[in-house]
């Protein structure tokens, strides 16, 4: 009885956390693009700020802040990175003999 309750609680937790931590391919692409844009902008701003203040340390601080900001915005699975569709749309199952499964040079005979 207790083992069944523990198993049920584990399954529920797995399902809940699976939905919370899941980021699909589109979310990964969005996170990568955000990371690159923030890092490049902070690098340019840091270089300009360091040049104007004649201090490489100031430029590196701005770059480090940009890296920290981009990490904060892209590493956790925020809601804008998770799938927005409630149900995934799956393709119809193909037969084993379907030509779509094989490239033209590997025709199954």
UniProtKB/TrEMBL annotation:
UniProt subunit comment: Component of the signal peptidase complex paralog A (SPC-A) composed of a catalytic subunit SEC11A and three accessory subunits SPCS1, SPCS2 and SPCS3. Component of the signal peptidase complex paralog C (SPC-C) composed of a catalytic subunit SEC11C and three accessory subunits SPCS1, SPCS2 and SPCS3. Within the complex, interacts with SPCS2 and SPCS3. The complex induces a local thinning of the ER membrane which is used to measure the length of the signal peptide (SP) h-region of protein substrates. This ensures the selectivity of the complex towards h-regions shorter than 18-20 amino acids.
Compartments (UniProt record): Endoplasmic reticulum membrane
Family: Belongs to the SPCS1 family.
Transmembrane segments: 34-52, 58-81
Name used for this protein in its record: Signal peptidase complex subunit 1
InterPro entries membership: Spc1/SPCS1
Membrane topology value: Multi-pass membrane protein
Keyword Membrane: yes
Protein role: Component of the signal peptidase complex (SPC) which catalyzes the cleavage of N-terminal signal sequences from nascent proteins as they are translocated into the lumen of the endoplasmic reticulum. Dispensable for SPC enzymatic activity.
The species this protein was found in: Oikopleura dioica (Tunicate)
Amino-acid biosynthesis is among the record's keywords: no
Keywords of the record: Endoplasmic reticulum, Membrane, Transmembrane, Transmembrane helix
PANTHER family: MICROSOMAL SIGNAL PEPTIDASE 12 KDA SUBUNIT (PTHR13202), SIGNAL PEPTIDASE COMPLEX SUBUNIT 1 (PTHR13202:SF0)
